[in-house]
Amino acid sequence: MLKFKDSKKKFTIIYETDDMTENHIIDGKVLNEYERELVFFGDRNRGDIFILTSEDDIEEWNEMMECIIEDEEEWDEKSRDLGLSNYFNFV
Description:
Layout: E1 2-4, E2 11-15, E3 23-27, H1 33-42, E4 50-53, H2 58-65, H3 72-78, E5 88-90
Antiparallel strand pairs: 1-5, 2-3, 2-4
């Protein structure tokens, strides 16, 4: 289960592939709806993308990660590739 390291730190992670290893991190900013639409419009030919932010509920993050990270060993292996290591702890 993930837990925010700092609940006040703002960030956005744009995931560009199903395995989530292709991602873009925007540190210090949460994209607004207009900015999200621009990302989706500009990326319409590349396939599925999804966006998660520090304002999303921790349960949403946990749901997204539960099939990818099952234990602390997997956390150690995958958290950096998924852009999570600076923002979350695995508990």
